[in-house]
Every structure is written in C-alpha cells, then in structure tokens.
Amino acid sequence: MDETIIIGSGMTGITCARSLANAGQPVRVLDKGRRVGGRMATRHVTMASGDLAFDHGAPYLRPSDPEFAQILARAGARPWPDGPDQGRQVGVPGMSGVALALADGLDVMQQTEVTGLRWHDHAWHVDTSAGVTRAGRVILTIPAPQVTALLGATHPFHADLARVVMVPCLTLMAAFPADSPRPFTSRSDPSHPLAWIAQDTTKPGRAGAAVTWVAQASVAFSGEQLDAGPDDIAAHMLPLLADVLRVDPARALCARAHRWRHAQVGTPLGQPFLRARDRTLYAGGDWCLGPRAEDAWQSGRAIARDILDGDHVD
Question: Bridge partners of 27?
Fold first, then answer.
C-alpha cells in the first residue's frame, strides 16, 4: 500500500498533502468537518438583507517565514492594516480562502469521521464513517487530545502527547446595522471576558450592508461556559460585546456562537512532529510548535520533508 492518508484538513494537513502530492506521492485527506481549513474558518449566515460572513477562527495571519509569506501571497491573502500594525494578512473573501487555495486539486474527503486506526497485515486500516480504507502511511494532523483518543493510552506517542496543553475558545459572531458604532478595527484585552474583538467589515474583500464583529472569549470565560449550548453562549456574550461597542444589544441583526474545544496551544510539544520508527505513522499540528497558523504550516512542511527525505534515502 503506497497511499498516504492524512487525517485532518487544517493548515498542517493541507500543507503536508500539498507537498507530498507535488512530489508525485498518492495522498488522500480525510476530515470530519464540512470544509477544509480547520480553524482557518469562515462562517456564512444568510439574512433577508443579504449574506454575512465571519472569520470565526484565526482572525488573521502574521507571516515571519519568507516562504510562508510567499505561499499566502499565491493563495490570494491581502494586508489588513490596523493602525500602526501593518503585518497582518487575511484570506479573501474570508480566512478560509487561504486553505481553499492550498487544497485546490487535492483528494479531500470532508464529512468523513475517522473512528478507529489499527495496523494489520502490513497496512493501516482506517475505520471511517464512510467505511474502512487502507493505507501504507497515516498522518494525524488533528488536535493532540484527539490523537490521544484515537491511538489510546498504551501507544508510544502517549507520553509525548500528554505534555501538550490545549485550551478552549468561545467565539461570538454578531452583526449590527450599518449606522451602528464602529469604535475600533480590533481590540485585544486579555483581562476582559472578550479578550479579542475584531470588526470583520474592515477586512479587504468584505462587503455587506451590516457591520460584522467577531469576539473571542478569554480562556477563563471559555472554560466556564464551554458546556453551555450555542444559543446560551451567544446570549452571554452578546451583551458583553454590546457594552464594549456602546450599542443596544437589541439592535443586533444576528448573533451566533461557536465552540472551539481545542482552539489554542497552551503548552506545545516542542518539536515539529511525532514519528513512528518505521515512518508509517506521524502526528503533527500547531500543538507541536505554538499557537499560530504558521506553526501549523511549519509542522506540515516538516512532516512532508521527513517523509520525502526518508523515501529518498531508502
């Protein structure tokens, strides 16, 4: 079995798949979500007045590696100036646009949940919601807790995975009429229950009759409210946002909430990936190196290079 199966279509998985596919290797990506990108996500809400879009995951990218900057440019990312901060890049027409561009032409199966993984008869047998598939190599690019759940506590990766700490984040997506206050483009205040607030309307390529905001809760607030339903979360967060914006919450045209259970890396692994000795199993993600999308990209790139270098040596 020569095919490689990558589980997870976030930045790490798509980066790794693209590198392997470009080298001529057969690779397929499986993901339980509806769209590629993971936390490079854009939520679309249909309203009577028109469609609204919210970047409810990563709000922007700040490339430091020149190669990553070039990849973003080729994917259509554009600068998002915010006062003196000129280093931010965003996908167009939404953050998911970057992931979609990187995944173009790849064999990706969305809404396919992986439920089991076992090595048998010289191949990996991957149990999915669509049936069982086989592969010579499997790369896990899902959050570290999900890797642990899939492999089990007796797997050799377990001790390393146990060192990784990931924290949740609750996100509010809200829209107000065009004449509502717009006191800032973005605001960061770790001491406030809404630690990050961004006016998505100000990003390039965004258009609409409403002012759209995305608010991401602090780690403390997210932990306290994590098990509440989306409607209850939105009901808790909307008044907090309205207070900061100095607007009547009743003027909100819509308010939606999303739970990211493994949103941010609290304590990273400290190396770009985990690898079985025979190179048939890898695990990686932003949780290996840090909280940024560029960390996820670096992990995916490093896995692909290790595989290609190993195949060349063999």
Answer: 4
